[in-house]
Amino acid sequence: CQVIVHDVNELTEKLFPIVEAMQKHFSAGSGTYYSDSIFFLSVAMHRIMPKEITRIIQVDLDLKYKTNIRELFDEFDKFPEGAVIGIAREMQPVYRHTFWQYRRENPQTKVGEPPPDGLPGFNSGVLLLNLEAMRQSKLYNQLLEPTMVQKLTEKYHFKGHLGDQDFFTMVGMEHPELFHVLDCTWNRQLCTWWRDHGYSDVFDQYFQCEGEVRIYHGNCNTPIPED
Description:
- Pfam families: Glyco_transf_8.
- This is XXLT1 xylosyltransferase.
- One of its GO terms (molecular function) is xylosyl alpha-1,3-xylosyltransferase activity.
- The chain has ten helices and seven strands.
- The chain is α/β, with parallel strands linked by helices.
- It has one domain.
- Strand 6, helix 10 and strand 7 form a beta-alpha-beta unit.
- Helix 1 runs parallel beside helix 8.
């Protein structure tokens, strides 16, 4: 077993020029803070990691595993042609909220609508990054360019604050083929903030998750059930 420790400052130095343009659209603060770049690590991981590293699973700290993480690696084999990232759907109506203006202008859209037919956006608590595929995807790398980021944020009137998750969500609205959607049981989010903030009527359509949970995600400091 080989453990390699990466220096956060070194990573940030490499990341900043790649993600600087998107930070102003998807960061909590106003403006572009150098230190915020680390919240976009997954977006440009393929540009930073050594070429011999071809696949990475990136996870949040507020998770509880109910199965062997090795089973999650098997999901890489299920990626359809052209997909570069494995990610689960967001389980709250946060993006129904964020895309309100686009939704108002496009009443028939699936953007921000709940599953199974809608596009609720993504949650980046559990990420499968096929670095090899990310390096080879012309489309994905074009989408990292500042002009493309600007174009999409204007089209969707998008202003977020959740870092990489916002970028993947916005790109997923335009190019769903870049993503392998993980089952909700691989990232069973527990946060219910939006239920009490104006969306109680539709909340459960986003929050429901059938099947035996494999990873619990105690997002927004939500307690994770004991065994």
